[in-house]
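Researcher: We're teaching a course module on how sequence relates to structure. For the next exercise, students receive a sequence and then see the predicted structure as tokens, so they can try to spot secondary structure elements on their own. Here is the exercise chain.
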Amino acid sequence: MRVLVFGAGAIGCFLGHRLAESGHRVTLIGRPVLVAAVREHGLSLSGKNPASAVVRPQAATTIAATPPEERNWELVLLTVKVYDTKEASRMLAPYLPGGTPVLLVQNGVGGEELAAQCLPDTPLISGVLTMSVSMEEPGQLRQETSSGSLNLAPVGEQPWPAAAEALLSCTGLRVALYDDYRSMKWSKLLLNLLANAVPAILDISPGEAYRAPAVFELERRAFLEALAVMSALGLEVVGFPNYPVKLLAWAMQHMPAPLLRPLMTKVVASGRGDKKPSLQLDLTRGRHQSEVRYLNGAVAVEGARLNVQTPVNKAIAEVLLGLVEGRLSWGEYRHRPERLIASIGR
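Model: And here is the predicted structure for the students to work with:
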């Protein structure tokens, strides 16, 4: 089968690698440095996984640069950051044959709605990956965690594209199916809130964040605010294979902090491995946009709409956006949790 991966970062390349290794014809659309590396050396995968071959998918910087005879894709993976979803969907639209399903695999919430605006007649699938993957060098992937799954749910009233499920199941990844994509995405958001934005703002490791009682309390309050918003939205907390999110939610609500902190340290370690949080990597690399708008920021926006108080998520999102946009100085927040705490409720 022919598969297009639009947004060949770590996640897109990881899924593309697994599909290519399974014998499917994969085309990656990515940045010039990635495309050059894949064309010259192929795409490799190392880390906590069985030995994997180097694969050689097609690679181009734009869809227009792909050979016309290669464009009869049977599945499209859209793996750009949420803030790039609308532009990527507009670029995809002219090249999608009727009925070709598009699978969005992204962190944060809201990408499906953005894609639907530009692809109204396209079957959309929502996906979340509960594995940590990094790209050490262009074309060189590292799987940071050994367990995890690819979790899928249909979007809207379109019929479930069974061919996509069958295709993805053959990659060797565990595939789990859900009926309500919003419950699935918001449950993954709960995991993405953990040791992500706060360590990025403070420029500390997730382990440091969970060893500091005041910082851990921020993390816990942000998580509980998100739970309250989910409840107001009428969304169920769902679990993922090897990730009992319902149990995690209960623990965050009821366990005393001295018992909860060691437990959460293990949860974060199993979910992230040695990889720095994505929001911290973006800030370190000097990117001027951040997915925090669709994580903590989404909690704050929905909370305001539903009259649910979310002061911690609002402050976290505002500070991190201020840092990436250059309106705030990172030096004011590095290793200074009291500075972040003071910004709550302003």
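Model: If you want an answer key for the exercise: DSSP finds 15 helices and eleven strands in the chain. The chain has a mean pLDDT of 90.
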